[in-house]
Specification:
The longest helix has about 40 residues, at about 5-45. The protein is mostly helical. It has helices at about 5-45, 50-60, 70-90, 95-115, 125-145, 150-170. Bound molecules: heme C. The site of heme C has 22 residues, from helix 3, helix 5 and helix 6.
């Protein structure tokens, strides 16, 4: 038999490799199709894929200050709440209605402290954030004490909270608006 030209051998090798790659491609296709199907099924349980949620939410909405002025924000969100709380905290509550008033106002103040983080000043932002955190922590403690109807605990949390409100007023308002229990 005459020796096959080297080109023939080469062509055969190429054909064989192509067959193998083709089967690999088909296999890969099947595997990914299977993955897609399981993905679709698990997706239909929760209604969406986890990764898609934040992107979609960010595109639709996010926190945004309604009132840019810090003055108006304090005057209409913090001040009336503080004034009501001062009355409610003047004496131990008699009934559930009084406790509910304290729960409501302490929660409003504690949650409103979170909104201070969206209003960081150009200078000393870290100090500002610390005052906001401290006020929120004590506001949360007051809320918790009111849930437990523990007036002793509530009173000390209330005073601690006001100290932290005042700490921010001292630093950023030259000591104006010093609130008393
Ligand atoms: C991170 C800083 C910061 C914290 C914390 C803070 N405040 Fe203020 N507050 C301010 C600033 C700044 C002003 C002055 C706003 C202005 O008039 O421009 C102010 C003003 C006020 C005023 C006066 C509003 C007016 O119209 O005269 C009250 C009342 C007040 N804050 C209540 C509170 C209470 C209650 C807390 C705690 C639960 C609190 N603040 C926590 C920064 C803070």
């Amino acid at each position: 038999m005459p020796a096959r030209p080297p080109l023939f051998d080469l062509l055969r090798k190429v054909m064989r490799t192509m067959k193998t790659s083709a089967s690999l491609l088909i296999l890969a296709g099947l595997v990914s199709a299977a993955f897609c199907m399981t993905g679709a099924f698990s997706g239909s349980h929760s209604g969406y894929t986890v990764a898609a949620v934040p992107a979609v939410r960010n595109a639709v909405a996010g926190p945004e200050a309604v009132e840019d002025s810090m003055h108006e924000f304090m005057e209409y969100v913090f001040q009336p709440t503080y004034r009501r709380l001062k009355v409610s905290m003047a004496a131990e509550p008699n009934d559930n209605k009084d406790w509910k008033a304290i729960k409501s106002d302490s929660l409003i103040l504690a949650e409103s402290c979170n909104l201070l983080f969206a209003r960081l000043p150009a200078e000393d932002a870290d100090d500002w954030a610390q005052h906001a955190t401290a006020s929120r922590t004590d506001g949360a403690a007051l809320y918790q004490a009111a849930r437990e109807k523990d007036f002793g605990k509530a009173s000390s949390a209330y005073r601690a909270m006001l100290n932290n409100c005042n700490a921010c007023h001292r630093q950023f308002e030259n000591g104006k608006h010093i609130l008393v229990p």
